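Researcher: Good morning. I'm working through a list of sequences from a screen, and I'd like to move beyond sequence-only analysis. For each chain I'm collecting a predicted structure so we can compare shapes side by side. This is the next one on the list. No need for commentary yet; just the structure.
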Amino acid sequence: MADSPDIIGSLADLSAAYSAILCDVWGVVHNGERHFPAAALALATAREAKIPVVLITNSPRRSADVVAQMNAIGVPSAAYDRIVTSGDVTRDLIIEGPRKIFHIGADRDFTLYDGLDVELVEEFEASGVVCTGLFDDEVEKPEDYADLLRRLRARNLPFICANPDIVVERGERMIWCAGALARDYAQLGGRTLIAGKPYAPVYDVAMKEIADLLGRAVERSDVLAIGDGMMTDIKGAADNGFDVLYVSGGIHARDYGDPLRPDPARLIAFLERHGYRPVAIIPRLQ
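Model: Good morning. Structure tokens for this chain:
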């Protein structure tokens, strides 16, 4: 790749050129079990320089639930101004969809439906499906859902995916997400509806939050996105008009060697393979 992106050592090397930051959460700010202090400090430093930080996550939960989770693992509130979740924007899809819903996912995600005029029903009664993840993501795999997805597809039920991620790292473990089931349902010819990254609705809401924080609208070219997921964060930034800082030590780190010292040739080949060009690369946000 000609004129390949620089590998930088600090967010401060870039942040002054932008009016605001949109930052991914899982894999950048924390790994589901512990937070990354250097990332939190880098974001807090940007905020001290009057650059607002909006966290943008594919979590299927509502923003208040994600804040509670981050508090529990020590993410300091000084690291961000606002948070927008896939769960938040998915509620609009649920409102527009069928009233009788079959829920696929953990019971902890039921707050997604709070205040909505929907009824959670058994599979055979449902007019639509909402998937927040696997029922037990510590032990199950997407192939365990093959028969269920075929039955749902046979009835042509719309499938709302509240978390477009395929996998995330929880600590040192790889955990399958709702996006894997949505992928498999689409491969069966089923209709999927998704509002999180890389799709526009979650970015539209995030831009409204930025405008509110700044007291004025800004161009997307004035906003720096940060993320580690190629098909969510990086594709989403590219498709929606944002410059993006790629955190190479996240979900794809195994593709190019040591997470903190990636092999430059393998890293550039990886980016070429996916066809995206971040403005810069940083092994871990700091």
